[in-house]
Amino acid sequence: MHDVSLRIVTVGLVLVAWFSCLALTQAADVPAQSAPRHASDSPHWAYDGEEGMDHWGMLSHGYMACETGSHQSPIDITMPSEDRAPERLQFHYRKTDIQAMYNGHSIQVKVSPGNELHVNERIYRLMQFHFHEPSEHHIEGKEFPFEIHLVHRDRVGHIVVLSLLADLGAGHPVVSDIWASLPMHAGESVLSRQLDLSTLIPDNLHHFAYHGSLTTPPCTEGVHWIVMKNKISITQAQRDRFVALVGHNARAVQPIHDRRVLDE
Ligand SMILES: [Zn+2]
To answer: Which one of 71, 105, 207, 224 is the catalytic residue?
Structure first.
């Protein structure tokens, strides 16, 4: 009996290690097509404890930017400056096939090609979106219950992340559809039916814009952030379900240093 339980524990540990590696290559903010990293370059990280956000920069040389970067995300958006030439956003989102996965850090939703965000004349393709609880970005010191990050990339790898802050209220149809068949375990994928992602985008496109980073290791900088002013809403039950599965997954706000936040 003892041998059998030992074997079960061993198999369990191997599975946990495997899923952790899987989670690393699918880190929440890293675009789906980024090159796979060797496990030793990207050790496991968490939000709390010894591998928590205060220690990310010390976990690996590859995570140095988390510690030493001067343009990190998220931030508390205060005193934005009026942009004299506001950027023009055009969303070309459509009904699309999605695949939701619990990557150990968030629920990440991979989307089929065909959804684009045009920023002025530049074209970015939507790669994936994922969720944070509570919000990572704050506005005038205020945290929100939930935040969605839609990660876009252009042909040469420039990243634009669109942030949608969420209050509690009625459930958003896109969130409700994904929550109806959430993956239950790390590494598990669930195929859902087609979703119309254009319903996520508010009619009013007023937003804040600034230069920041991925909010998860390796905290790579050079990310163009667009934080929409209009909020969406999710239900308390949806939020509770997410926390029961994933836990809290918001990085603390980072110093702004010399950056300007533009009010567009
Ligand atoms: Zn994110």
So the answer is: 105
